[in-house]
Specification:
Elements: H1 6-26, H2 35-49, H3 53-56, H4 58-84, H5 89-108, E1 119-120, H6 127-145, H7 148-158, H8 160-165, H9 170-196, E2 198-199, H10 206-219, H11 226-243, H12 251-266, E3 303-314, E4 317-328, E5 332-336, H13 343-350, E6 358-363, E7 366-367, H14 373-379, E8 381-383, H15 396-403, H16 412-416, H17 420-439, H18 455-467, E9 473-477, H19 485-500, E10 504-508, H20 512-518, E11 521-526, E12 529-534, H21 536-540, H22 543-550, H23 553-556, H24 561-568, E13 587-588, E14 594-595
Parallel strand pairs: 5-10, 5-11, 8-9, 9-10
Antiparallel strand pairs: 1-2, 3-4, 3-6, 6-7, 11-12, 13-14
Helix pairs in contact: 1-6, 1-9, 1-10, 1-11, 2-4, 2-5, 2-9, 4-9, 7-9, 7-15, 10-11, 10-12, 11-12, 15-17, 15-18, 17-18, 19-20
The protein binds adenosine-5'-triphosphate.
The site of adenosine-5'-triphosphate has 12 residues, from β4 and α13.
Length: 604
């Protein structure tokens, strides 16, 4: 019975292994078609260089060929990956397809490959061997999935910029994923060669590459079972066709294309996304931080941010100019200013996202400019974004786990051999994530996908994710945007409680009342320049600030919300907990205008 289906089963296994080579990079959001080239190089070099079965025995011959093939595939990925890893989306697909085609043409014109006639290889692979190899590959990706490395790859797929800000070295992770893809494609190439008896360079052409990609996409790139499901579907369709007596050759590609369309339109996570992902909050009240990497924070009063003449110019537009600013440990600094004043550009420079055009800046002892974002994050800077940058398809808990990347330890290799220490470290990271979720009041929603949360909850989730790295400096870009008065008041209390724990906080906010109530110091930017800096009540009464907001100091100062809030006494940090309604939710607009509270416009 099994013999009857041996060929089908072997091709399901081979197809799944090839699909895993695509899955290896899709999981990190990379679209590559170069795997056909790696498989081809591996198949020919393995079959050509390995000793024959007659000399060393069938299984050793196959194992030597596999070792050669996987090494060649991985090496090919390094050679191709180093110059192409900065490419994204379709550009990477085109570059890697070019490589695969170049390999095919070169091999087609070599004597030792047999050219278009192909190279004869003895059949050694059995269905059992094929499924053993598939089981090992699937095991690799299964154990990788929940590891720190696997989560980092998923984070890169979901939002590369946010992943960088969590301290993930995106370039290194993408290259590692690409090398894995090369090795797995190499494995496929050799196994294929030792099964089909005759390999030709055209077996690894564009169509083969697209089939591998389609199998992986249909199966799904969000769960390790995806390639297996995809390959099962792709291989079984023609069998069913044969069983019902329909011989038309177009049915399989037609159904595959149709399914691809359906998957892309209605099931972006592929067939595997139909299987629910479980994320469990850690049980027990163990509150220790054992298993997490320790952080050293600056002592209260030490300089955290030092900016000297910092400026940023965009083609003649001075977004920020000549900013001198020092932020010391323990301060809660509010950065306010009218729309377009340069606030986001300034915090983007501080967090390393945007290089300055002039001046210098040191953040937690790290000079910014050419330092990559993940290194600045590693120095202790964590942030949220003006427009939420969550990992949408991951659960709330998984989002915060990625946030704990910098303080958790690598677990992948230890997970492979089930070392108890890997489990201990994972539990520590989970506890850290659970604590941060609890701190922002989102424990109940831990298992919900980030994209399914309400706007206010998404902003709080971003804060929890930023807290998970145990930062020394927390930067919040409009954290109260989209929140109602009650939520904004709770957020204000959360920020003050974080400051009481010694965290230094820099936050941009249009809700001026909340800023005045929350901060120890307020810095006001206008047209890229600092026009005021000082205690909240001082700044609120500063004529230059009132003019920047209202357009006319004389006309509006008495009525102005800045002055009003400041004078009402519910303004300075620590001035007492005003009831939620006392938090003025005013938004400064362009000079001379004052927007009424508007929560919808920030939701974009
Ligand atoms: N990438 C960019 N390219 C060109 N100009 C930019 C870029 N980013 C910002 N600017 C310009 O720099 C100025 C400051 O923008 P920025 O977003 O920093 O202001 P902001 O104070 O954060 O504004 P808002 O409160 O509306 O978010 C604006 O004139 C903006 O158009």
């Amino acid at each position: 019975m099994l013999d009857q289906y041996a060929t089908t089963l072997t091709f399901i296994a081979l197809g799944a292994i090839f699909a895993y080579s695509f899955y290896a990079v899709l999981i990190a959001g990379q679209l590559s078609l170069g795997q056909a080239g790696f498989a081809s190089l591996a198949a020919f070099s393995g079959a050509y260089l390995a000793p024959s079965g007659a000399d060393v025995g069938d299984v050793p011959a196959l194992l030597i060929a596999v070792a050669i093939g996987m090494s060649v595939g991985a090496l090919g990925a390094v050679v191709l990956g180093l110059p192409t890893m900065h490419l994204r989306g379709v550009f990477l697909a085109i570059a890697t397809l070019g490589f695969a085609e170049a390999v095919r043409v070169v091999l087609l014109n070599q004597e030792w490959t047999g050219g278009a006639q192909g190279l004869g290889v003895s059949r050694i692979l059995t269905v059992g061997m094929a499924w053993t190899a598939l089981a090992l590959v699937a095991y690799w990706f299964w154990r990788m999935g929940r590891s720190r490395y696997g989560r980092a790859l998923e984070a890169i797929r979901e939002d590369e910029l946010a992943a960088r800000s969590m301290g993930i070295d995106v370039g290194r992770h993408r290259l590692a994923a690409f090398i894995t893809a090369g090795a797995v494609a190499g494995l496929y190439g050799v196994l294929y060669a030792y099964y089909v008896r005759l390999i030709a360079p055209n077996d690894f052409d564009f169509v083969a590459a697209v089939e591998g990609l389609v199998t992986a996409v249909v199966g799904g790139s969000t769960m390790f079972l995806g390639p297996l499901l995809g390959s099962g579907f792709q291989t079984i369709v023609p069998e069913i066709q044969r069983a019902v007596g329909v011989e038309a050759g177009w049915i399989r590609p037609f159904l595959a294309s149709l399914l691809l369309l359906v998957v892309i339109l209605f099931l972006p996570g592929g067939l595997a996304s139909l299987i629910p992902r479980r994320t469990r909050m850690p049980s027990g009240d163990d509150d220790t931080t054992a298993g997490l990497a320790g952080r050293r924070h600056p002592a209260a009063g030490d300089p955290v941010v030092t900016l000297a003449g910092l400026g940023k110019e965009y083609g003649g537009v001075h977004a920020v100019r000549g900013v001198d600013l020092e932020i010391r440990a323990g301060e809660v600094v509010g950065l306010i200013g009218p729309n377009g004043a340069g606030k986001t550009t300034l915090v983007n420079m501080i967090s390393g996202l945007v290089p300055p055009s002039s001046g210098s800046a040191t953040v937690l002892g790290t000079a910014i400019g050419s330092t990559p974002v993940h290194r600045i994050a590693a120095a202790g800077v964590s942030r949220t974004f003006q427009h939420s940058k969550l990992f949408n398809r991951l659960s709330a808990l998984e989002n915060v786990l990625v946030g704990a990347h910098l303080v958790s330890r690598p677990t992948f290799l230890r997970r492979m051999i089930w070392l108890p220490s890997a489990r201990r470290d994972e539990r520590a990271a989970l506890r850290q994530a659970a604590r941060c979720l609890e701190r922002v009041g989102l424990s109940e929603l831990a298992g919900n996908r980030a994209e399914s949360l309400s706007y206010g909850d998404q902003r709080r989730l971003e804060i929890a994710r930023a807290l998970a790295s145990d930062p020394s400096l927390l930067i919040l870009d409009e954290p109260a945007a989209g929140m109602n008065h009650v939520e904004a008041a709770r957020l204000s209390e959360l920020i003050r409680s974080l400051a009481r724990d010694g965290l230094t906080i820099l936050f941009i906010e249009h809700n001026v009342g909340m800023v005045l109530q929350t901060c120890t110091r307020v810095v006001v930017l206008n047209f890229g320049e600092v026009i005021a800096s000082g205690a909240p009540d001082q700044v609120a009464a500063d004529p230059a600030v009132i003019e920047a907001y209202l357009g006319s100091a004389e006309d509006d100062a008495d009525e102005g919300p800045l002055a009003g809030d400041a004078r009402s006494g519910a303004t300075a940090a620590g001035a007492g907990d005003a009831p939620p309604d006392a938090v003025a939710n005013v938004r400064p607009g362009a000079a001379g205008t004052l927007d009424t509270p508007d929560t919808s416009r920030d939701a974009t």
